[in-house]
Amino acid sequence: MGVTREGYRIAVPGAVEVLERCGVDRPVARLAELAARTPGGLTVVVDSANGVLDAPLGAAGIPVLRADPPFPADGGAAAELLAALGRSRSDALTALPSAGWTMSGREEEIAAADRASAPVERQLAAKGAVLTGGADAGPLVALTFDDGPHPEFTPQVLDVLRRHDAPAAFFCIGLNVLAHPEVVRRIADAGQTLGNHTWSHAYLPDLGPIGLARQLGHTGEAIAEACGDDRPVRWLRPPYGGRSPELLRAVDASGLVTVLWDVDAKDWSRPGPDVIAERVLSQVRPGSVILMHDAGDDRSQTVAALPAVITGLRDRGYRLVSLDELLAAVHPAAA
Q1: Helical H runs in the chain?
Q2: Which among 293, 294, 297, 331 is annotated as catalytic?
Q3: 169: enclosing H helix or E strand
Q4: Which helix (H) or strand (E) holds 329?
Q5: Rounded to a whole number, what is the largest CA-CA distance in the chain?
Q6: Where are the domains of the chain?
Q7: Which entry of 47, 74, 146, 294 is annotated as an active-site residue?
Q8: Fold of the domain spanning 108-334
Q9: d(CA 8, CA 175)
């Protein structure tokens, strides 16, 4: 299973199917159909540049194998290559747990790369090229939402924000922008901030320069096309917060500001609206960047928790601001 500039590409023995400008539900449904018709079922092979399929495939009961470097994973390994690896080198691939995530088994590696990035991260933060959250910005906080747009939950989040007159940033996955451009236009029309969350929720440190350019460039182009606006997107949220010194420097050279976070609602675990709100309000501090999600799974609990998050922050004396305003407060010269 691979991704392209047009959508998803499914390769099975003797056939290749291209599913263009669609949500992830369509390729997952097609794979489930193929699995039901295949004696013994089938196993899907992805790479670490494809983080949009793990959860829905697991929910559909379809086994998933991940191809890690040194296998090609430069932002768009061909479906045919991944299928061939599954047939000939399955012993060298990593089986993902059904309730796991794309990077299962690489947690220590990711943490080590994050630690190694700290000196460069501080250097770039000092000039406003990285926004980490929790910097000395007074009682200002920024709400951010990852993994959209989603045709159901993103509009619901926007409705809550409108009712509470609250700004937020939406870090969009390019494939979802391609499938739901009308939702991206609604985000822009509401005056909210749009950000880049890569084309296919890729673990960016695995990618070379070409793969990185493709992941960021395709997404920026899709957002511009959806909005009818050629102004470049300024902000990048790396999936999983994945970073390396080389990646941070490359993103800075591209002109994007890397936005991390210091408050994680962990709403993806769906613990209930009250728990989501409590997690945010117990972690927040001046200058916080709050991470929530408007897509990737059922986000009804996030929508239900959002009013309590907004009112709770304001009751504690915080003012919700855009990323631009938060960055200006932390680094006036970078605004």
Answers
A1: 25-37, 54-59, 79-88, 107-116, 118-126, 153-163, 174-179, 181-189, 209-227, 245-254, 273-283, 300-315, 323-330
A2: 293
A3: strand 169-172
A4: helix 323-330
A5: 62
A6: 2-96, 108-334
A7: 146
A8: TIM Barrel (3.20.20)
A9: 9
- For residue 97, the 8-state DSSP code is P
CB 295 within 8 A of CB 270: no
- Phi (first) and psi of residue 65, to 5 degrees: -115, 145
47 forms bridges with which residues in the sheet? 67
178-220 residue pLDDT tens? 999 999 999 999 999 999 999 999 999 999 999 999 999 999 9
Q: How far is CA 155 from the centre of its chain?
A: 18
**Can 293 be counted among the known catalytic residues?**
yes
- What is d(CA 99, CA 59) in angstroms, rounded to the nearest whole number? 8
Residue 266 — φ and ψ, nearest 5°?
A: 50, 40
pLDDT in tens, 101-128: 789 999 999 999 999 999 999 999 999 9
Instruction: Write the single-letter amino acid at 106.
Output: R
- Please say if 201 is a catalytic residue: no
- Kindly report, residue by residue over 283-329, the tens digit of the pLDDT: 999 999 999 999 988 999 999 999 999 999 999 999 999 999 999 99
Locus of tokens 């199917």: 17
Tokens in use for 147?
């993994």
The β-bridge partners of 324 are none
Task: Give the Cα separation of 175 and 2 in Å (integer).
Answer: 12
